[in-house]
TrEMBL record, chains A, B:
Protein name: Xanthine phosphoribosyltransferase
Cellular-component GO terms for this entry: cytoplasm
Keywords: Cytoplasm, Glycosyltransferase, Purine salvage, Transferase
Role description: Converts the preformed base xanthine, a product of nucleic acid breakdown, to xanthosine 5'-monophosphate (XMP), so it can be reused for RNA or DNA synthesis.
Enzyme class of the recorded protein, top EC level: transferase
Transmembrane segment boundaries: none
Organism name: Candidatus Gemmiger excrementavium
Principal location listed in the UniProt entry: cytoplasm
One GO process term, biological-process aspect: purine ribonucleoside salvage
SUPFAM superfamilies, alphabetized: PRTase-like
Keyword Ligase tagged: no
InterPro entries tied to this protein: PRTase-like (IPR029057), PRTase_dom (IPR000836), Pur/Pyrimidine_PRTase (IPR050118), Xanthine_PRibTrfase (IPR010079)
Length: 191, 191
């Protein structure tokens, strides 16, 4: 998606440890017009796939999921990272290792929101090692739902998450794939 | 807002400890059509107030903020609850006590996203004791921005947050104010 690649080139910042900061428009400050274009693009890719629910994980995924759900006219459900007093009853749980935060955490989703009748599109802002995505896929498997597709804004193509998901047979669409990055700049994979 | 009150009556669940669960449509599963109507209502109330940015806090606030920002055509910025390796440089910080999670936590916002040139609308899903809101107002004060208004989906009118903000002179709009709740039902404040 050229529009997203341009914004990454204009405003993204490469930091030590393979960090690509896009906090000006994607995950701290949010450019809602860009998110709407991203949602339209995901609908172009997955719109004919019978999706009836969008699944994501707090916090950055929520904005992308909501702005995409408008185009599909389906609800969003998001996995939570912290255990709240307000989540009770039966939940699906999976454990995720976060490189960003340097720790393991549990993600939870109330069982009533996902089941065998659902065909979900899973969305997230980044895909790198794919740990959070594996947690979401684990929850999908527990629920018996069908994974209709996986949509990612920015994939770090030099980390293994994307390749593993493609090998596993998922319909994965990453709107921008960064194949290399350094202080000198970024290279995107031609798509 | 009658539409929101109706959904609360239909799908909200009262739980011990003054908990009102609205996870079917507002903060776990998200009804994007309803959020769009909520955004339109906030625009009706605050649309003439010169708002140039919407401020919220992760995670539940993000969906409401994004769907409202579309109506204002302004960016969203959200305060983060956990310290990420990816947030560097100067940040505004404030400490918040959460009754829901039973602990104190820091919220942070990168300084580059809020300053004296901004007039913000602060949005959140719930207002009860107002602790998270006070943290956001503290960050606004640190930044020198102007608070143009505060928009809340559901205020618990029997807890002190709303009254304190009105006494302090803020333009506060709560789309539904629950004045009492029990196993027998809910009472909304006439507005």
């Amino acid at each position: 998606m050229k529009l997203l690649e341009q914004r990454i080139l204009q405003e993204g910042q490469v930091r030590p440890g393979n960090v690509l900061k896009v906090d000006c428009f994607l995950n701290h400050q949010l450019d809602v017009d860009l998110l709407d274009e991203i949602g339209a693009e995901f609908h172009r890719i997955f719109g004919a796939d019978g999706i009836n629910k969008i699944l994501t994980i707090e916090a950055s995924g929520i904005a992308i999921a909501c702005m995409t759900a408008r185009h599909f006219d389906v609800p969003v459900v998001f996995a939570k990272k912290a255990k709240s007093k307000n989540i009770d009853g039966d939940v699906f749980t999976s454990t995720v290792h976060s490189y960003t935060y340097g720790r393991d955490y549990d993600i939870t989703l109330a069982k009533k929101f996902l089941g065998p009748e659902d065909k979900v599109l899973i969305l997230d802002d980044f895909l790198a090692n794919g740990k959070a995505m594996k947690g979401l896929l684990d929850i999908c498997e527990q629920s018996g739902c069908t994974v209709g597709g996986i949509g990612i804004c920015i994939e770090k193509g030099f980390q293994p998450g994307g390749a593993e998901l493609r090998e596993a047979g998922y319909k994965l669409a990453s709107l921008a794939i960064v194949d290399s990055m350094s202080d000198d700049g970024l290279t995107f994979r031609a798509q």
